[in-house]
Structures are given as C-alpha cells and as structure tokens.
Amino acid sequence: MEKQTFESAMTELEEIVKKLENGDISLDESLSLFEKGIKLSKACQKMLDNAEKKVSVLMANENGEMEKKDFLPKE
Fold this sequence. Notes:
75 residues, Helix Hairpins, 2 helices, rod-shaped
C-alpha cells in the first residue's frame, strides 16, 4: 500500500465533508465516512507535526539553538 500524501488526504477529506454536508446518504454510510474523515484528519495532523519538526531542525543555528526567523521574507 502506497503512503498517502498530505494533499491527497486533504482532497479525500474535502470530498467526505461535501458528502456529509449534502445529507443524502444513509446513517450507516454517514458514520462510516465520518470515521474515515477522523482518521484522515489525524493523519494530516501527524504529517503537519512531522513537517514542523523538520522545519525546526533546519532553522536551528550552528549551536543547535533555535533562532526566530520570519517564514516569509519582508517586502
């Protein structure tokens, strides 16, 4: 099984939300979609947390100390 990307997980989550908001599916299907949506949401959060850790490592200075830097360059 291929690992799902953040973007594909978000796209799938958006599709689930649309189906749930539409409201024309059965209760069982709604619950199943809701459960899948929760799993996708947790997977996305985990991917974001891992990305944040990587960014933190990359932003550490030569002494291993974190330096506060603007994410976007100043205009």
